[in-house]
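Worked example (supplementary).
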Amino acid sequence: MTSLDILFGAVGLITAASAVLAVTTQQLVHAALWLVVALGTLAGCYLILGAELVALVQLLVYVGAVVVLVLFALMLTRAPMGRSPEHSSSAVQRIAAAVIAAGTTSLLAAVLLPALGGEVLSARTGDTKAIATQLFGAWVWPFELLSVLLLMALIAALAVSRMPTTSPTSPVPAETEST
Amino acid sequence: MNPVLEVVLRSVSVLAVFLVLPLIVGQTEHKVMAHMQGRLGPMYAGGFHGWAQLVADAAKFIQKEDITPRAADRWVFKLAPAVALVPYLVALAVIPISPTLVGADVDAGVLFVLAASAVGILGLLMGGWASANKYALLGGMRAAAQLLSYELPLVLSVASVALAAGTLSLSGIVDAWHPLWLLWQLPGAMVFFVAAVAELQRGPFDMPIADSEIVMGPFTEYTGLRFAFFLLSEYAGIVVMSLLFTVLFLGGWHGAFSDSLGPVWTLAKSAVISVLIIWMRVSWPRLREDQLQRLAWLVLVPVALVQLALTAVWVVLSSR
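After joint prediction of all chains, the assembly is encoded as:
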């Protein structure tokens, strides 16, 4: 057991703990902030494993952009101080979430643990150039497919936001004004 | 040298630079603003040219009471200034002053600086929300909207330089730099400069703290040392952004006698950039919120994309 192993264990523990706190806390904004800690320490895990580029992208995209967007949307709609039990989910939802999480974890473990065969693989090959060669060589099709998926999401979001709102509660003001 | 000792020594020197350079920028801002706008206040303390103004400011900030509003979210409120300040310290550690003078030479240094400084937004958001003050909340939201939209042109213009140099390492970029880049990368450099000033939320892009509209934005409820931390993070941001601009676009330590005067060149170039940033704040009125978003999406992003295409075409043609 090296000092890197100990460090990885410690950072991983913080990641797991803050992830649990993010879904169990009663305070909405605190949940988003715990998510920041979880995603940031996950970047730390990548860094300890030697995947420097992945760690930096994780920090730039998730902490710098995604969570900031989440916080921004929260503040734009409602970001109450203190506990807000009215936003907490029902017991059925909680149990369902726990079952799905446990299922995903065991599925991943069942696939990954036999695949690696208990062998410790060094990931310290990953300098930026090597990752770029892999990404744009062997994995270029999945990579491009993902970008098409993101583009579709973008266009769909734009289309949804431009859809005419025809709610019955709001009368058309232009009609009443003209008389 | 003993590796542990070396790490300690490097960390301490980065910390020392981090504590000194922002204060120099702060003092410069006092003096430059005083001269440009005929302000008498900053020229008074201590006699000659008001040299003791910064000391007086520090004494004032330390004496002030540290107030946390009753309705505030205590922990988030207290943590926010540190979250705003520390990312710039981390970013400063990887920016090279000369080929040998660097805190830590990271392989993907450009990405490191961008990732670290992107975390700083969270400090403003946390402070703005946790103050339990509607002006602070408005300021926090303005800050988030501004930083998110200016992040894109910033990253695109940096990507153009990285593409031109063929590396993500900061010292690698300076090594690949050529004086012709001043012309070739000029649109990208302009985009980077404007976006960097907007990321720092300094005039003319200071809507988040617009004092004539929303008191002091996210900093409204802060007093004493915590407020000083936010101010310090602004100056630290100027230092990081002007060093980064120097390294990316102005060729860092390239210059006459660069073997012996390399660090001096880097620091001198970034000092000029810092003064430019201060000059912009003094000269121009604040933009409106919608003008700000328009500038980012309709001017900066297209220019950055054109620059990226230009760089890519040139790199492909010249590598044949």
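Two points are worth noting when inspecting this output. Chain B is about 70% helix and 0% strand. The mean pLDDT of chain B is 84.
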